[in-house]
Each structure stands twice: as C-alpha cells, then as structure tokens.
Amino acid sequence: MTVSEAFDTFKSELELPDQQQKQAAAAQQQIRERVSKYLFVPSSFLTGSYARYTKIYPLNDIDVFLVRNERRTGLAAYGSGGVYPTAALNEVAAAVQGAYPSAATVKKQNRSVNVQISGLPFGFDLTPVWLRTPDGYWIPDTDTGSWIPSDPDAHATRMTAANDLNDGKLKPVVKMMKHWSRNNYDRMSSFHIELICADIFSTQDIGNYQVGVATVLVHLSRYVNQPMLDPVYKQCRTDKMLSPAEASELLLRANSDAQRAVDAVKLENAGQHDYAIAKWKEVFLKGFPR
After folding, report:
1. How many CB atoms are located within 10 Å of the residue 129 CB?
2. Peptide bond connecting 152 to the previous residue in cis, omega within 30 degrees of 0
3. Across 127-154, average pLDDT
C-alpha cells in the first residue's frame, strides 16, 4: 500500500457509515418534532459540524438550533423583560423531559442542552436561539449571563467556499485533524480546528492529504491557547481555554507529531512507503490504515 492509498482509505473510514447516516437523519427529525410539542419552536435546523459535513466517525453529537421567535429582534435592556439565558436552557430541558419522560438523559451546558436518548449511540446538543436583527441568531451564554450573536449559515458558506478553493481537499484534512485531536487529549473544539485549517490554507495549497495534515501540524503551535474569535461577529472565542499545563502538554504533542509528519513525507518521497505509513500511525495513534 502506498501512502496516498492509505490516506484515501483513512478518508473513507472517517465518513459516517450509511446506516448511521440514516439513523441520525431519522433521530434528529424525531427529536425536533417531539420537543416542538412541549415548546414554542416555529422552526429548527441542523447546525455545527454535522450540517457542514465535517463530522467524523464515530459520531458523538448532532447540533440543533431551536428557533424561538418568528421576527428578528434586538436585545432588551437589562431588567426590562425578555428571556434570560439560564431560563432559555431550562425551558429546553423541561421540553425534552416532557417529550422523553424516561428515555432521555439531559445535561445543561453553557450554551446548549445535551440530550442522550436510550438506544442511540450519539446525542444531541439543542440550542435555543432567537432571530437577530439584522441577521444571524442570538444564542445563550450562561457563563456570562448574556446573549451572543452567531450565524451558522455564514459559517457553512465560508467553509464551503474554503473547501472549493482547495479543490475539495480541505474538509477531508479537517476531519483528519479532528481525528488527531480526538486521540490527543481532545483539547481543541471542532469549530476551532475548522477555522485553523481554513486559515492556514487560505494562503497555500494543500497538495495531497498527507502534505495537508503535515502542514497543519507544523503550524498548529501558533494557534494553541491563542484566542480565535467567531469570524462573522468577532465577539466570542471558538477555542477552548486551556490551563498552562494543558496547553504545554498539547504543544509538546503537536510539535513532536509535526516532526513525525515531516519525516513521514520525506520517507514517502524516498519511496519508503511502509516506513512512512508507520510514522503516520505514530501521529494518529489509532485508526490509520496499516
């Protein structure tokens, strides 16, 4: 097997299997319909990595926006009424418990409600949102007790444009880096990884998948624990805030894997595919083809 063949196989194995795609499609439709019977939700839609086609197998969670109003709105002055972030999440949690009285485990998070339904190998992150004037949505942030703007439609459009600019190779590289992150402490948010990859390849070509992954690893250290804001409104961070010890540990692994990746590319260029594949297995730790 050549390195390129190994990466093509790796790319395929990171895709969600057809059976899980069908299961996820049916489950997300069901939860949206059932919750809307207990909560006023004029519309709802899929968002996040699942909607942008950058989710990897195995699937963890599906992100859903529950739109709570019909007309765009600004923020009410503090103390003048309106829904507070904590109350908005409480309402969603109560609706889920009404829709699934004995089959769901509900956990309120900073900006969403995580739902695990008995019998499903994946969960849902349900976010209550309000249509925002003039565009986008207001989403709750219970850490700050405020509402922050977000525009998943713009995020998806930007990712599609960046992927097209890179001849369809950006999303596969993003998925490979998410797999790397999942196996190496899992300290980078999914969206943060997407933004890092898009930023790096806005000024250089990916080449092939292995060169693309090596390039991201070589540049990754300058992004670790550095604030990266939502590219649309530039008001909230997309990166996870790490402790100095966590950041140091991740940087050490990123830099050592960057060297391994560079070595793997050199071995491939020298025609030593078996040794190069062995190096890539050291980088990804598990899941990379033999």
Report:
1. 25
2. no
3. 96
* Mean pLDDT for the stretch of residues 34-62: 96
On whether both 101 and 196 belong to a single domain, the answer is no
Output the CA–CA distances (angstroms, integers) from residue 50 to 125, 180, 247, in the order listed: 11, 18, 27
CATH number (domain holding residue 271): 1.10.1410
Q: Reduce the DSSP state of residue 237 to 3 states and report it.
A: strand
The residue out of 150, 168, 198 marking a domain boundary is 150
> What gap in Å lies between CA 15 and CA 58, rounded to an integer?
9
Query: What's the mean pLDDT in 86-112?
Result: 97
The CATH number for 92's domain is 3.30.460.90
Alpha helices, H only, the chain: 3-14, 18-35, 48-52, 85-99, 152-165, 170-183, 190-200, 209-219, 244-269, 273-284
Sign, CA torsion 129/190/94/27: positive
Range of the domain at 212: 154-284
